[in-house]
Amino acid sequence: MNYALITLAMILATVLTRFLPFFFFPAGKKTPKYITYLSNTLPYATIGLLVVYCLRGVSFAARPYGLPELLSIGAIAALHAWKGNSLLSIGGGTVIYMTLIQTVFR
């Protein structure tokens, strides 16, 4: 395998994804409506997709009935409402979830 060629392709792909938006949407030109729409709706759609993906294997019919997940989601929502910091919310929720599944809901 030619690792130099693969590395070059990865570099080119990274550079293109960083600079193409500046080429297609220059500073003096108005941003198209569909791009503005996507920038407003995609973050919420992505979060919804991640929640569904994370809860796909949870059994609400068997012990512990999804309690660690539901408590963690509640903690994430409370932390985010309190501080408004995504990293704190995600990190805090992860710590709470891991603590719950390793100590309380063994």
Automatic annotation (TrEMBL):
InterPro entries: Brnchd-chn_aa_trnsp_AzlD. It comes from the Bacteria. The chain crosses the membrane at residues 41-58. This is Branched-chain amino acid transporter AzlD. Keywords: Membrane, Transmembrane, Transmembrane helix. Pfam families: AzlD.
